[in-house]
What we know:
The protein is mainly beta. The chain has no helices and 31 strands. The protein has a 5-stranded antiparallel sheet with strand order 1-30-29-28-27, with no helix packed on it. Strands 6-5-4-31 form a 4-stranded antiparallel sheet, with no helix packed on it. A 4-stranded antiparallel sheet has the order 7-8-9-10, with no helix packed on it. The protein is globular, with a radius of gyration of 17 Å. Mean pLDDT is 78; it is low at 1-31 and 33-53.
Amino acid sequence: MRVVNLLRKPNRAAVLLLTLLLCAGSGCAPTCDVAGAGSGVPVGHQDNSGGSRGGFKFLFAAATDGTGRQGAIFRSTDSGKTWQSVAGTPPPTLTCFAANDTYVFAPTVQGLLRSADDGVTWSNTALLSGNEVLGVTAVGGYVIAATDYGIWRSTNNGDSWTRVYDPGYGNFATNGRDILASNPGLGVIYSRDTGRTWTEVASTIQTREVNGVVFDSIYMYAGTYQYGIYRSSNRGSTWQQMPLTSYPYFYGLATMGDTLFAASDRGLLRSTDFGYFWTPLGFNNSYTQSVLAISRPYIFVGTFGYGVSMTSDQGKTWSTLDTGLTYNVVYGLGMK
């Protein structure tokens, strides 16, 4: 485990892939998408600080060799200090994970994978086997998954599915029964009943290129391509553009309580005043593409070429967690 200060040493000329997700409830319900490098892969959720070391027992990573030939799902039982390969997967097909009390879920270009033993073994669910799954989240006893054929909802952990919306918005954020979903080019939709019904809510956002969405205790946020971050205080009826003109491109958002984190084209940022002012947390001058796993006080970052990094001091110092991680291009992170 190597400790570096990325605020003083911004990066090593690498392209960074930052994945954001958060642990909540007794399991972890990240939001995610399944796009490859160069696309937004936003995630966000509410923080839970209880449980073992930050409220999670297992950490998952989807990593490849960067060539598209080799890749695997990795699992850690010691918060990323060491990793074990648990399943091979054709890269870069898997970029996120979601979990409830019973299963861990992983979307791929060939269907939705499911594990009943905390990620040791995996099998396909009944959701459109052989077709791409864009994203997944688990909330309120339901599993919500997005595909090219719309958004699907399962009441039995993936044994059967009902299509509830078309087209498929793949980037999810949850807050109790509420779910936000975005997709670059389509905007934002909102559900107040755990994904049973959906409404478009992005009419006052300047662009439909919304890469990431997230809740805090008061606001909804949307990270866009080229137009910065927007905030809504009225369940998405109207949106206010935040004063962050020097960082126009955002690829992922997440919250830890009311602290907001954002992955941008110029590094990782943090705001403690609901999006008005921002502090750089490292990975400066790098193209960040939103891959974070957050559970108080830990922030895990998947990088493009340097494995997984972690901070427990709000980004002042970072540890590189790569023991056993045989591939260093990390497309997805997850917790349970």
